[in-house]
Specification:
PH-domain like, 7-stranded antiparallel β-sheet
Length: about 110
Amino acid sequence: MAEPEFTATGVRIGKRLRSLTRADQIRINDGRLELLTSYGTEIDSAPVTAVRAAHPWFAPHDRALAEVNGTRYLLRLGDRDPVPGESGPPSVRAFLEAIRSAGARQRA
């Protein structure tokens, strides 16, 4: 199996006002976005071409909205990219760029 195109750990994934868990994972692999629990159980997944993701104007810099299979998730990532060797989630900007680039590869 190929290395994932994007991986973020320690992400808080919420649905509406409810947090699903605190240390979730986001992975983009083979053109698919996967939302996983800290144990690796799938919460939701979809092809990146079917995912809508954005940084809402009303939210702090460390949050992104993602609509996967018609369900909206609030993702709390880091507000900055971690230093190499430092653990922690990448920034919202890195996540959105990974979604865009994976989607462009799928369309091409």
